[in-house]
Amino acid sequence: MSYAQAISAFSALLLDPQAQSAGLLHAARMRHYRANCRLNRIAALQGVFSNVAQLVGEDFFTAMAREYVDATPAHAADLHAMGADFADFIAQFAPAAELPYLAAVAQVDWARWRAYLAPDATTLGLTELAALAAADFASLQLVFHPSLQLVQSLHWPIADILAMHAGGPSADLRRGGQQLLISRRQWQAISTGQWALLQALVAGETVGDALERALQCEPDCDIQTIISLLFTQGLVLRAEP
Amino acid sequence: MHCTLPLTTGLGLRAPHLADVLAQRPPVAWWEVHSENYFGGGEPIAALCQLRQDYPISLHGIGLGLGSLGPLDAQHLAQLQQLVARVEPAAVSEHLAWNRHAERYFNDLLPVPRVEGVIEHLAERISIVQDTLQRPILLENVSSYVGFADELLSEAELMAELVRRTGCGLLVDLNNFYVNALNLGLNAEAELAHIAGDSVYEIHVAGFEWFEGTAIDTHGAPVSTEVLALLRQALARWGAKPVLLERDTNLSDFASLYAEYCSLDQIVKASAGNTAREYV
Q1: What pLDDT band is residue A131 in, cutting at 50, 70 and 90?
Q2: Which residue in B239, B131, B237 sits closest to B188, CA to CA?
Q3: Any idea where the domains of chain B sit in the sequence?
Q4: In the predicted model, what is the mean pLDDT of residues B83-110?
Q5: Residue B209: which residues within 8 A CB-CB, separation 6 or more?
């Protein structure tokens, strides 16, 4: 048996206990490898989706994560890179239907995790910032820090739910969707106009075009606050003409 | 060899203890961390760089999958390369294991079948990693719960051959050899006899637990007396080496782990006569 054949046989047995155990000794012990792979992935999900885990409790989370892991092949060796579609899985996971906003919380957990582990990057310095003021600001395109994440829930007041979860006032679940701006330092609710502005900027539109979109979407949108927040929180890497 | 770990006891550093360690700066001789936990930016890598100013750091990879078929995971290797460049660690190590088949990853350290073609396959990939990182790596033996019929050589013999072919160094995990002895009937002492002392740049010890009649390398229990006996033998045979205490599961508070580190350090110092010998 060649090396490639042996690895293929090993892999087949990992995926299917009924597969041919050609050349493998103690093949019944494959169950330990299956268990290790599953447990390693479940533990990683527990670390990433901490708000989801707290909302549903450890037993429920483990059972849900186990079903997700079994249904979703791992596509990376780095356990921290897995879970991008866990929110989608939760949205259609029938036992979680009692907590209909759980998938939205998972989306936030994932975005916060991406922000936490995003690559480091040098943000725009004060001198460069001062030079910008003189330039034609409307014609610039902004390049953002990789930790900037935008999350929108169309149905659930996700910012109020997170605040409630953190010990704040009870959220009114009927008030509809909300948007969040997430960075390494913090998360905060943003309006629909601010959301439209940031979406447009992230997509590479000029500041002028993005402002137009924001005001179309929300005529009295607070533009100044969100623009100054981007710069004061060090979320802008470059402004390009 | 590009390995400058002190010839004394080090400790595996895990996320739950990071804050305590940063605040207290305990007198641990060196730390080993899992490379993958420091891929990316932000807090984790900033904390590691801070520790790096005061302690030697060993980067220990668990996900490169040297034995997987097909080309190495280019993204994973690039991330490792960036990390090594940023941390400038005292040692870089990886496992003699595979973790991917047909684009599907298995998140565990799977033993390589030591059948025809294994030496060439691993030698090629170890050389690629060493060329990319511009430094030799240390190769570690793994725990095995299964075996293959008609294997050509033992794991220690394979490691020795890979040292000859690639110039890599060895990280000898005594608990893994012992677990394999329990599960597969190998002779751990005979395995150690295949390894030349001057190819060993680090030793690992850890604890295992029994599950359904199989000894599982959980790193979740104190080091067994049998593994400590192997450690005394290895140090007597090879002289002083960097010895790492690994603990990954059933983690207690840092004070308890530190107490275990201190008692291991006593054994290491007594066994190796605490001689300070420089690497070449």
Answers
A1: confident
A2: B237
A3: 9-272
A4: 97
A5: B215, B216, B218, B220, B221
pLDDT digits (tens, 9 = 90+) for A52-109: 999 999 999 999 999 999 999 999 999 988 899 999 999 999 999 999 999 999 999 9
Q: What residues of B are in contact with residue A80 (Cβ under 8 Å)?
A: 36-37, 39-40
pLDDT of residue A128: 83
User: Greatest CA span in chain B, whole angstroms?
Assistant: 53
Helix residue spans in A156-206 (DSSP H): 158-165, 192-202
Chain B closest-CA separation from residue A92 CA (Å):
24
Smallest Cβ distance to B145: which of A11, A26, A79? A26
Say how far apart CA B259 and CA B262 lie, in whole Å. 5
Contacts of A118 by beta carbon, 8 Å cutoff, 6+ apart: A145, A146, A147, A184, B40, B41, B42
Tokens of B209: 């637990």
Q: Which helix (H) or strand (E) holds A178?
A: strand A178-182
How many other C-beta atoms are found inside a 10 Å radius of the C-beta of residue A26? Answer: 15
pLDDT greater than 60 at residue A153: yes
ipTM strictly over 0.90?
yes
Contact B93, B133 (CB under 8 A): no
Are A25 and B116 an interchain contact pair (Cβ–Cβ within 8 Å)?
Answer: no
Task: Give B98's contacts (C-beta < 8 A, 6+ positions apart).
Answer: A7, B65, B66, B67, B68, B69, B110, B112
**pLDDT attached to residue A184:** 93
Distance CA B97, CA A158 (A): 43
Instruction: Inspect the interface and report whether the beta carbons of A118 and B44 lie closer than 8 Å.
Output: no
Is B113 in CB contact (< 8 Å) with chain A? yes
β partners of residue A181: A150, A188
B9-272 CATH: 3.20.20.150
Rg for chain A, CA atoms, rounded: 23
Distance CA A155, CA B261 (A): 52
Closest in B40, B76, B147 to A77, CB measured: B76
pLDDT digits (tens, 9 = 90+) for A14-52: 999 999 888 899 999 999 999 999 999 999 999 999 999
For A74, which of B104, B116, B211 is closest by C-beta distance? B104
User: Which of A1, A3, A183 to probe the B interface (max B CBs under 10 A)?
Assistant: A3
pLDDT at res. B252: 87
Residues in chain B: 280
Mean pLDDT of B5-34: 96
DSSP B37: G
Q: How confident is the model at residue B279 (pLDDT cuts 50, 70, 90)?
A: very low
